[in-house]
């Protein structure tokens, strides 16, 4: 390709990069803002501490007077990469052929998981006095992880698992290192690698003490979150699930607000209670499979074939699901979330809202629906009702009455994730696609909201809505950004929030699982959209418009270059997803359809196979070969593995294995 062809093809990216790089140097407000912030350091207990306030922080504050050449270059790079991202993923025949020819490196996921863990270990050996080195190294590791994760986009997400890596770990117990992604987990992995550097960059601007420990927590948490999204061995998933809790507990407990210890303990107790239930369910499922096959395994693909007795099946479903509902969080196990968000430092709130909560929604789709499709199908209408009443509507009403803007955003997460769970409970292709894209949307828009709340807290050290009013007069850029993110949060067309909520509502209306209640659920979901507009636009009106009566707000500086650099990628992604949703939906379409079809067939067969006393194995041909690729080779369940099955049950299973009409019967049973 000639130089002229390169310019012709990539001119939009070049133009975006130039526009970002030629931003004016600013009017000096940033320096004033930095000094104003310094006046409030110490004693407020959230993000600001004075222990290690060395000369480099003061130099950084003075440099905030305008966009430095490096900051302008960073904004230009962000703009250019965003345009390249859209061009690269835009559907085209040539792009598809090139992707087909690209091989999969089986160790890529291992690198993505291992890189932050190795970085965290390296941080422990760095002198704590070298603050710039610690910050730069952490950002470099997280940035390298994001760039490496883009490699995942080079492979089309066809049915089945990609970038699969399998190693024997504890053979005696059948525990393996088994990681892989599909079109569903792809975007959640990319969301994690995208958000982490932004959260770290924002944290380094406000947290001034114990930087070494902060860097360790950020890197360690990143590795654990990525591991949870790609683990296909239940022991491995549980390990990463628990490892996530430690750094978040530390981040809230050390750099949190006045009631940080209470919030950290509450987070720990709630999560551990759910984890113990899930562990009990895992152990029982593995034991039942061992009785059937004669071999131990924790592999998700192998355990998907197990049909437990009806009572045990329901108990295990609840054991897994309660753990996931706590993490989401769903009513009534949601009360840890507002406290954790309010007390957490800004970077911790961003990671908690944008990524950690999504592990609960993802895990319900992958494990609760994958391992126990029968109970998930039969309880769908009841769970959808809880998602609407206890999530969407309750969360919105409580958010509306909050006087603390950060607590308002926290309760808005309860409402938004209620939509995600509604899409999963309805079990339609549209609903599941909408739920997955809404997980990404919530991570982007709510992450931006928490950053914006952190901006105003840095200036005033209060989050009380009554303390503000008329801010648009003195902070026009900040007001504009807040309004854009508000529109995304309430689902205005053209922003990222619209497409996800629309698909979930349409999927709810068309859901067979919700039966005669689908119309009522749809009305409830639509009412939640209206309530979201009420509480979000209400706080915008109170904070930014009307008279500027509080004298403390009359000289507040607008968004500084550092804050603008942290917010820019999120603002851009709001419009990229909102205007080009097909880029994201096409990549997950085949995986979602495969998951939906498998759930429909397997849930029906589980009902046919299940009895009151004995566990059984579904035939392998119930599942697609692409799904079982990588599953361990175990017994067929006939000889010793057939313990608990009588002769008639084995004959029935053999007949079903060859029954060509089984899928149709399963569909009828599921309906």
TrEMBL record:
<feature type="transmembrane region" description="Helical">
    <location>
        <begin position="408"/>
        <end position="427"/>
    </location>
</feature>
<feature type="transmembrane region" description="Helical">
    <location>
        <begin position="238"/>
        <end position="255"/>
    </location>
</feature>
<feature type="transmembrane region" description="Helical">
    <location>
        <begin position="470"/>
        <end position="488"/>
    </location>
</feature>
<feature type="region of interest" description="Disordered">
    <location>
        <begin position="628"/>
        <end position="671"/>
    </location>
</feature>
<feature type="compositionally biased region" description="Low complexity">
    <location>
        <begin position="660"/>
        <end position="671"/>
    </location>
</feature>
<feature type="transmembrane region" description="Helical">
    <location>
        <begin position="379"/>
        <end position="399"/>
    </location>
</feature>
<feature type="domain" description="NADH:quinone oxidoreductase/Mrp antiporter transmembrane">
    <location>
        <begin position="231"/>
        <end position="512"/>
    </location>
</feature>
<feature type="compositionally biased region" description="Basic and acidic residues">
    <location>
        <begin position="647"/>
        <end position="659"/>
    </location>
</feature>
<feature type="region of interest" description="Disordered">
    <location>
        <begin position="26"/>
        <end position="61"/>
    </location>
</feature>
<dbReference type="GO" id="GO:0015990">
    <property type="term" value="P:electron transport coupled proton transport"/>
</dbReference>
<feature type="transmembrane region" description="Helical">
    <location>
        <begin position="73"/>
        <end position="90"/>
    </location>
</feature>
<feature type="transmembrane region" description="Helical">
    <location>
        <begin position="523"/>
        <end position="545"/>
    </location>
</feature>
<feature type="transmembrane region" description="Helical">
    <location>
        <begin position="105"/>
        <end position="125"/>
    </location>
</feature>
<feature type="transmembrane region" description="Helical">
    <location>
        <begin position="214"/>
        <end position="232"/>
    </location>
</feature>
<feature type="transmembrane region" description="Helical">
    <location>
        <begin position="439"/>
        <end position="458"/>
    </location>
</feature>
<feature type="transmembrane region" description="Helical">
    <location>
        <begin position="267"/>
        <end position="287"/>
    </location>
</feature>
<keyword id="KW-1133">Transmembrane helix</keyword>
<keyword id="KW-0472">Membrane</keyword>
<dbReference type="GO" id="GO:0048039">
    <property type="term" value="F:ubiquinone binding"/>
</dbReference>
<dbReference type="InterPro" id="IPR010227">
    <property type="entry name" value="NADH_Q_OxRdtase_chainM/4"/>
</dbReference>
<feature type="transmembrane region" description="Helical">
    <location>
        <begin position="565"/>
        <end position="585"/>
    </location>
</feature>
<dbReference type="GO" id="GO:0008137">
    <property type="term" value="F:NADH dehydrogenase (ubiquinone) activity"/>
</dbReference>
<feature type="transmembrane region" description="Helical">
    <location>
        <begin position="307"/>
        <end position="326"/>
    </location>
</feature>
<feature type="transmembrane region" description="Helical">
    <location>
        <begin position="184"/>
        <end position="202"/>
    </location>
</feature>
<keyword id="KW-0812">Transmembrane</keyword>
<dbReference type="GO" id="GO:0016020">
    <property type="term" value="C:membrane"/>
</dbReference>
<dbReference type="InterPro" id="IPR003918">
    <property type="entry name" value="NADH_UbQ_OxRdtase"/>
</dbReference>
<protein>
    <submittedName>
        <fullName>NADH dehydrogenase (Ubiquinone)</fullName>
        <ecNumber>1.6.5.3</ecNumber>
    </submittedName>
</protein>
<feature type="transmembrane region" description="Helical">
    <location>
        <begin position="347"/>
        <end position="367"/>
    </location>
</feature>
<dbReference type="Pfam" id="PF00361">
    <property type="entry name" value="Proton_antipo_M"/>
</dbReference>
<feature type="compositionally biased region" description="Basic and acidic residues">
    <location>
        <begin position="35"/>
        <end position="61"/>
    </location>
</feature>
<comment type="similarity">
    <text>Belongs to the complex I subunit 4 family.</text>
</comment>
<dbReference type="InterPro" id="IPR001750">
    <property type="entry name" value="ND/Mrp_TM"/>
</dbReference>
<keyword id="KW-0560">Oxidoreductase</keyword>
<dbReference type="GO" id="GO:0042773">
    <property type="term" value="P:ATP synthesis coupled electron transport"/>
</dbReference>
<dbReference type="GO" id="GO:0012505">
    <property type="term" value="C:endomembrane system"/>
</dbReference>
<feature type="transmembrane region" description="Helical">
    <location>
        <begin position="137"/>
        <end position="164"/>
    </location>
</feature>
<dbReference type="GO" id="GO:0003954">
    <property type="term" value="F:NADH dehydrogenase activity"/>
</dbReference>
């Amino acid at each position: 390709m000639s130089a002229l062809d390169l310019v012709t093809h990539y001119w939009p990216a070049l133009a975006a990069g130039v526009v970002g790089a030629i931003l004016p140097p600013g009017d000096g407000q940033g320096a004033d803002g930095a000094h104003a912030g310094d006046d409030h350091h110490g004693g407020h207990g959230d993000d600001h501490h004075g222990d290690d306030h060395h000369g480099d922080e003061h130099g950084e504050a003075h440099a905030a007077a305008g966009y430095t050449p490096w900051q302008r270059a960073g904004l230009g790079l962000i703009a250019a990469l965003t345009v390249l991202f859209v061009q690269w993923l835009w559907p085209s025949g040539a792009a598809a052929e090139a992707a087909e020819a690209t091989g999969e490196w089986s160790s890529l996921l291992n690198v993505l998981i291992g890189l932050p863990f190795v970085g965290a270990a390296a941080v422990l050996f760095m002198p704590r006095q070298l603050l710039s080195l610690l910050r730069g190294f952490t950002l470099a590791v997280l940035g390298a992880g994001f760039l490496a994760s883009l490699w995942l986009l080079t492979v089309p997400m066809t049915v089945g698992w990609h970038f699969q890596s399998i190693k024997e770990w504890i053979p005696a117990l059948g525990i393996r290192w088994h990681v892989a992604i599909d079109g569903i987990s792809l975007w959640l992995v990319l969301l994690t690698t995208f958000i982490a550097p932004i959260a770290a960059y924002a944290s380094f601007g406000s947290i001034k003490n114990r930087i070494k420990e902060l860097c360790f927590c950020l890197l360690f948490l990143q590795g654990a979150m990525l591991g949870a999204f790609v683990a296909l061995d239940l022991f491995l998933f549980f390990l990463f699930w628990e490892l996530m809790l430690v750094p978040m507990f530390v981040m809230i407990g050390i750099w949190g607000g006045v009631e940080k210890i209470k919030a950290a303990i509450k987070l720990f107790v709630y999560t551990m209670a759910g984890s113990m239930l899930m562990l009990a369910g895992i152990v029982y499922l593995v034991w039942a499979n061992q009785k059937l096959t004669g071999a131990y395994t924790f592999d998700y693909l192998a355990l998907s074939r197990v049909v437990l007795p009806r009572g045990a099946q329901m108990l295990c479903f609840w054991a897994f699901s309660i753990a996931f509902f706590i993490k989401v969080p769903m009513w009534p196990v949601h009360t840890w979330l507002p406290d954790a968000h309010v007390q957490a430092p800004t970077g911790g709130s961003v990671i908690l809202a944008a990524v950690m909560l999504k592990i609960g929604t993802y895990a319900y789709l992958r494990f609760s629906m994958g391992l126990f499709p029968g109970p998930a199908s039969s309880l769908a209408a009841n769970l959808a009702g809880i998602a609407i009443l206890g999530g969407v509507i309750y969360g919105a009403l409580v958010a509306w009455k909050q006087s603390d803007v950060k607590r308002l955003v926290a309760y808005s997460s309860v409402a938004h994730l209620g939509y995600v769970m509604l899409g999963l409970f309805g079990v339609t292709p549209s609903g599941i696609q909408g739920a997955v894209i809404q997980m990404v949307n919530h991570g982007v828009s709510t992450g931006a909201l928490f950053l914006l709340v952190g901006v105003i807290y840095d200036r005033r050290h209060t989050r009380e809505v009554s303390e503000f009013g008329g801010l648009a007069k003195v902070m026009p850029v900040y007001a504009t950004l807040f309004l854009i993110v508000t529109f995304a949060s309430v689902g205005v067309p053209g922003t990222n929030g619209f497409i996800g909520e629309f698909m979930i509502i349409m999927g709810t209306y068309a859901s067979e699982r919700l039966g005669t209640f689908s119309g009522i659920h749809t009305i409830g979901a639509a009412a939640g959209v209206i309530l979201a507009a009420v509480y979000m636009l209400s706080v915008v009106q109170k904070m930014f418009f009307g008279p500027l009566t509080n004298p403390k707000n009359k000289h507040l500086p607008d968004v500084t270059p550092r804050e603008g650099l942290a917010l820019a990628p999120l603002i851009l992604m709001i419009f990229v997803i909102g205007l080009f949703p097909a880029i994201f939906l096409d990549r997950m379409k085949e995986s979602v359809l495969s998951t939906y079809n498998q759930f429909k067939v397997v849930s029906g067969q589980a009902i046919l196979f299940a009895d009151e006393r004995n566990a059984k194995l579904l035939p392998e041909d119930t599942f697609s070969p692409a799904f079982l690729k990588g599953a361990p080779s175990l017994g067929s369940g006939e000889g010793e593995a057939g313990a608990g099955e009588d002769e008639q049950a084995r004959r029935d299973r053999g007949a079903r294995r060859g029954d060509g009409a089984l899928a149709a019967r399963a569909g009828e049973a599921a309906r």
